[in-house]
Design a protein that fits this description.
homodimer, alpha+beta, two-stranded antiparallel ribbon, globular, 189 residues, 32% strand, 5-stranded antiparallel β-sheet
């Protein structure tokens, strides 16, 4: 007998997971996704992003009744008014969230029940780059450190395997480490 | 006579901006910053990041009385419950926010008053990478398109110059296009 407890592991419906994987294996074009964000400037460093629809699995997604609205800004020392985390902090958040979701999904797929996933990320930069004061330093982080702490009902070696596989499959980790081509188009009025 | 209107342009205090630039020029170590994010898993794809302190300009920042708390998740089709934007959407947000702040700061420094900055970003991916179904596609976006629309009290050529300089100086744009080394450490218990 299959119980709910067997089907849902780490809060992930593993039957839905296997069904999704089978569907994409059978019809690879279901794997095509397009994600989107719209942003508008408010004042100074304050700006706001709206996120709602995306394309995936062969159709426009309509599961989000309301958009997500996210504010960004800069701290006072970087000429802002703390209206939200700053963009490089959001990058750390995107990385932490992606590695965490990958860990949870990989663990669910491998039959590992997790009880705790915590992480602490740090990125160092020399602001002379972004401020245009030096061409010898880069604009962004020189290095990011992501320290994870995992607890679960599996031996340490098994938890480490799950973490290694999650790192190998995380979309944001892969983008942040390898880079992505970005086209910027500007329309002026 | 210098008026407030001269000092504050696009919501940016240009006197504070020039003072900051002068201070970092005189003492380059003031440009050292470390940004941080802490994340913990809640259930399934749902996880939460807390952002508050950072190091910069020679000291620990204490300007944020309360932490910023940000939730992430996945849509239903990606085995989540829409508890927040997903990590790759947050990456688009970080990129939009950073390019927007760069535009506003560069314009302020160059005496250009902006009246509108809007952007729309899209990233395409083949989810077979992140799902571990194919080693022939990457995990993350193949390409990101960022379409900006600017309005301001300067000729179109000047607005385009501001946009080009902002793209050249944005920290997140630089990281996303070039990549950053990330060290992942895992402690199991």
């Amino acid at each position: 007998m299959t119980t709910i407890a067997d089907k849902v592991r780490n809060g992930v419906d593993t039957q839905q997971m296997y069904a999704t994987l089978d569907a994409i294996k059978a019809q690879p074009e279901l794997g095509r996704f397009e994600f989107r964000a719209r942003n508008h400037w408010i004042a100074g460093a304050h700006n706001r992003t709206t996120i709602q629809g995306f394309y995936g699995a062969g159709q426009e997604d309509e599961s989000r009744a309301e958009p997500f609205v996210i504010d960004a800004g800069e701290p006072v020392i970087l000429l802002g008014a703390n209206t939200g985390p700053n963009p490089v902090e959001y990058l750390l958040h995107a990385l932490a969230a992606c590695l965490t979701i990958s860990l949870v999904y990989v663990a669910a797929a491998r039959g590992v029940r997790l009880t705790e996933v915590e992480s602490s990320l740090e990125g160092q930069m020399d602001a002379r780059g972004a401020f245009g004061l030096s061409d010898e330093v880069r604009n962004g982080f020189e290095h990011v450190r992501a320290a994870f702490r995992l607890k679960g009902d599996a031996p340490p070696e098994k938890l480490r395997e799950v973490a290694a596989r999650a790192q190998q499959r995380s979309a944001v980790y892969e983008m942040v480490t390898n880079g992505v081509p970005v086209t910027m188009e500007v329309e002026v009025a």
